[in-house]
Structure formats: structure tokens, C-alpha cells
């Protein structure tokens, strides 16, 4: 079953497009590049939108092979953004992987940090799988601090 279209919230050119999926209480960040100077702005704005809309899941769409954030930006994600997300009510970080091995490596680092700080984390091959997990999170089925996976 294909995912219904989300509601467009904002776009930062050459960086990200963010969509809202209200039924799953999720935001999806369709990353074009994780390497732009707007990386932190994109995450801050996304978490503000998640708080405003009551989203519980942040779905990181890496299918466009967006590269990896700088070491400084990865450290910022670990030391600030995960806590900021949790304070804004986002309890899950769900990655949708493309073909890029490099993007998968970067995602492993922020996923480990998010899990250690109490977030539900998951890795998926499709947006449909990610939205299924987000629905579980929204319904309180997926526990914080644990990896989740789509139902078989």
C-alpha cells in the first residue's frame, strides 16, 4: 500500500522538504543534502513544527543520497538536537535508507545517540514501513529507547 501524500510544511532549497502525516503523528524530512549550511536550521525548524503539530516521529528520508553532515553537525545532533527533539515531544527517529552506504554510516551514528537518549529508533527501506512504525509510536506500541521494526 502506497503512503498517502503528506502535507507540505516547508522547503529549504537544496537541503530539505518537510511533510506532515497527521494520521501517523509524523514529520518526514526529505533530505536533498545533509551537507549545507542550513542543516541545523532545517532540524530546528522541523522540531518546532513537530511541537506545533504534536508529531511524535521524525522520519529521516535518505533515499536521495544526501551525503552526511559534517563532524561538527553530527556532534550537534548528538549533544543538542536529540534532546531538543525529546523536549518538543518527538520520541522516535526513523531512517528510510537509499542506496548510499555513506548515508547509512552517518545515520548509524545519530541513531545510536538517539537510542541512548531514550528515543525509539528504526531503519526502513521504504516510507510506507516508516509510517507504519510512526503509527505504532503514535499509538504507544513502540517503547522508548528501543529499536522498532515494521510488522511482517
Describe the 3D structure:
- This protein is an alpha/beta fold.
- A six-stranded mixed beta sheet has the order 1-2-3-4-5-6, sandwiched between helices.
- The protein contains four helices and six strands.
What descriptive keywords fit this protein?
about 150 residues, Transcription Regulator spoIIAA, six-stranded mixed β-sheet, 6 strands
Give the helix/strand layout.
Elements: E1 7-12, E2 16-21, E3 26-31, H1 39-53, E4 57-62, H2 71-87, E5 92-97, H3 101-116, E6 120-124, H4 127-138
Helix pairs in contact: 1-2, 2-3
CATH fold assignment: Transcription Regulator spoIIAA
CATH class: Alpha Beta
Please state the average pLDDT score: 90
State the distance separating the first and last CA atoms. 14 Å
CA radius of gyration: 14 Å
> What CATH architecture do you see?
2-Layer Sandwich
- Output the structural class: alpha/beta
What profile does the largest beta sheet have?
Answer: 6 strands, mixed
Helix content: 25-40%
Structural domain count: 1
**What percentage of the residues does DSSP assign to strands (E)?**
15-25%
Number of helices: 4
CATH H-tier superfamily: STAS domain
* Topology order in helix (H) and strand (E) letters: EEEHEHEHEH
